[in-house]
Design brief:
By secondary structure, this protein is α/β, with parallel strands linked by helices. It has 2 domains: 16-142 and 326-484, nicotinate phosphoribosyltransferase, CATH 3.20.140.10; 149-321, Aldolase class I (TIM Barrel, Alpha-Beta Barrel), CATH 3.20.20.70. It has helices at 16-27, 56-63, 70-78, 84-91, 121-126, 128-152, 167-180, 189-195, 205-211, 214-224, 237-252, 268-281, 297-305, 317-320, 433-444, 449-452, 466-489, and strands at 34-40, 51-52, 98-101, 107-108, 115-120, 156-159, 185-186, 227-231, 257-263, 288-291, 312-315, 331-338, 344-346, 363-370, 376-383, 393-397, 405-409, 411-415, 418-422, 425-426, 462-464. It has a 7-stranded antiparallel β-sheet. Helix 2 runs antiparallel to helix 6, helix 6 (128-152) runs parallel beside helix 13 (297-305) and helix 11 (237-252) packs parallel to helix 12 (268-281). It binds adenosine-5'-triphosphate, 1-O-pyrophosphono-5-O-phosphono-alpha-D-ribofuranose (PRP) and nicotinic acid. Residues 265-269, 293-295, 299, 302-303, 306 line the site of adenosine-5'-triphosphate (ATP).
Length: 490
């Protein structure tokens, strides 16, 4: 049986190991030590050249008023895993960390922090799982949406995914992420209500099946609605669906806005061309052809290449489930931690795979743009105390293949990470989704088309400052000497 709690909170939406580690920090008296954690992904999804940052609003909603409710604590008490003194402490605990992120809709890349938490190790550890949960999904969907938008051009793009999404929350927040990535409207009415996303829709095959023929169904719909898009493929698109739609449009005349017809099966290149001819032949030049059925950027771009006469694209499953790559794979790593003497010390995670070695130190991401053309030259990941804005020349080099380097003058450096939560208090109010979408579009304008193309894009430079790179090499050496020493002792 499912237990429902009136005071349920989202704070236990975390992995048990976070709470276990917190108990250790608490019992050992180090829980108030400061730390910096950074969140990043290692590979851009869908082999795209960029990603779109999304998830901030949900994070702020989660952090706001974060506390352990009575039933959360009672549940923990009943679990053998936790001790009473630890749970007593949680009762009066308040979140007090600082969080920095780019603005939602920002264009972001792999191997750079897209979120930073600075606070007690206790607080930073507690929110790792929900932060990853939110960003891993929403950034993935916003990026997928942006890819789809890039092939659609300025045609209509409708989000139809709710019925296929991985449960209700995913549908809701995925819809919002899709809008940030460039969709025009959604079929999800609750997303319209909550986020101010325009809602849009046609009708289903059920309507036609209930009336048992296209004409009666379309007529009934037309008599009860002003705006009409008729779904024409239930029985036979060209012989029954479209002729019935045209007949209803003619008979209803000015009483309706005949917006167009939707095709949901068959060869959509062939059908759309035939349907266009039929609509035009009867003077319905402005009636649009909508298409849906397992579409994504690949099928849409193929249909366009075939000269399909489709004006509006409805996309569900492959968007909302990120069908071709279901995970972004973002991680959250501690980069600096306070030692016994109260001093912040940078920390590293070593791996035999170079991409999995973390980059130590609290960092800022600087977007470097040329004065002359306002195009982004790359991102410059520097230690927090560095200020590239004060430099007249910047040496940018690939952190793995260091011989790949360039010197840049006459540039702008813009910091991406901004405070959104300070001392546990949310200080940032998200703009409306339309503003976020427009911001995202404007950020993409600063990218060369080589990075924007959907197929085999060039790799955008994400470079480390010399200081950040030296710091990383130093720490790798320190860890190596420590392991070598242990090896000698054994
Ligand atoms: N001309 C085309 N070129 C490329 N892909 C197409 C074309 N026409 C349709 N498609 C796509 O082909 C896929 C296959 O469609 P599907 O097998 O579902 O056929 P269908 O006729 O829609 O059948 P169903 O009634 O089961 O939905 C869909 O993703 C659809 O978007
Ligand atoms: O194909 P997607 O990209 O996921 O887009 C959503 C799909 O949902 C509907 O089909 P469904 O069969 O669920 O309902 P229907 O009875 O209206 O066709 C719609 O007709 C689309 O085909
Ligand atoms: O309005 C539509 O046409 C619609 C909505 C959800 C899913 N498929 C289609």
């Amino acid at each position: 049986m499912t237990a429902n709690f009136p005071d349920d909170s989202l704070i236990l939406h975390t992995d048990a190991y976070q709470l276990s580690m917190m108990q250790t920090y608490f019992k050992k008296g180090i829980h108030e030590r400061q730390a910096v954690f950074e969140l990043y992904f290692r590979k851009i999804p869908f082999e795209n050249g960029y990603a779109i940052f999304a998830g901030l609003e949900h994070i702020l909603e989660f952090v706001d008023g974060l506390h352990f409710s009575a039933s959360d604590l009672a549940y923990m008490r009943a679990e053998a895993m936790f001790d009473d003194d630890f749970i007593d402490y949680l009762e009066n605990w308040h979140f007090s960390a600082t969080i920095r992120t780019p603005r939602e809709g920002e264009v972001v890349f792999n191997n750079e922090p897209i979120l930073q938490v600075e606070g007690s190790i206790f607080d930073a550890q507690l929110i790792e799982t929900p932060l990853l949960n939110i960003i891993n999904y929403q950034t993935l969907i916003a990026t997928k949406a942006s890819r789809i938008r890039s092939v659609v051009g300025d045609q209509g793009l409708l989000e139809f995914g709710t019925r296929r999404a991985q449960e209700m929350d995913a549908a809701l927040w995925g819809t919002r992420a899709a809008f940030i990535g460039g969709f025009n409207a959604t079929s999800n009415v609750r997303a319209g209500k909550r986020f101010g996303i325009p809602i849009s829709g046609t009708h289903a095959h059920a309507l036609v099946q209930i009336y048992r023929n296209d004409y009666d169904a379309f007529m009934a719909y037309a008599q009860t609605h002003q705006d009409c898009v008729f779904l024409v493929d239930t029985y036979d698109t060209l012989r029954s669906g479209v002729p019935s739609a045209i007949r209803v449009a003619q008979e209803m005349g000015d009483q309706i806005n005949f917006l167009g017809v939707r095709i949901d099966s068959g060869d959509m290149a062939y059908l759309s061309k035939e349907v266009r001819k039929m609509l035009d032949a009867d003077g319905f030049y402005n009636a649009k052809i909508y298409a849906s059925n397992d579409l994504d950027e690949e099928t849409i771009s193929s249909l366009k290449m075939q000269g399909a006469k489709i004006d509006v694209w409805g996309v569900g499953t492959k968007l909302i489930t990120a069908f071709d790559q279901p995970a972004l794979g973002a991680v959250y790593k501690v980069v600096s931690v306070e030692n016994e003497a109260g001093k912040m010390v940078d920390t590293i995670k070593i791996s035999s795979s170079a991409v999995k070695i973390s980059t130590p130190g609290k960092k800022q991401v600087w977007r470097i743009t040329r004065h002359s053309n306002q195009k982004s030259e790359g991102d410059y990941v520097a230690l927090w105390d560095e200020n590239p804005q004060a430099q007249t020349e910047l040496h940018m080099f690939d952190p793995e293949h260091t011989y790949l380097s360039k010197h840049i003058k006459n540039f702008d450096a813009r910091p991406l990470l901004e405070e959104v939560v300070v001392g546990g208090k949310v200080i940032y109010t998200s703009p409306d989704v339309q503003t976020i979408q427009a911001y995202s579009e404007s950020r993409l304008d600063h990218l060369w088309s080589e990075y924007r193309r959907g197929l085999n894009p060039q790799e955008y430079p994400v470079d480390l400052s010399q200081k950040a790179w030296d710091n990383k090499m130093n720490l790798i050496q320190q860890v190596q000497s420590y392991v070598d020493e242990l090896d000698r002792q054994n």
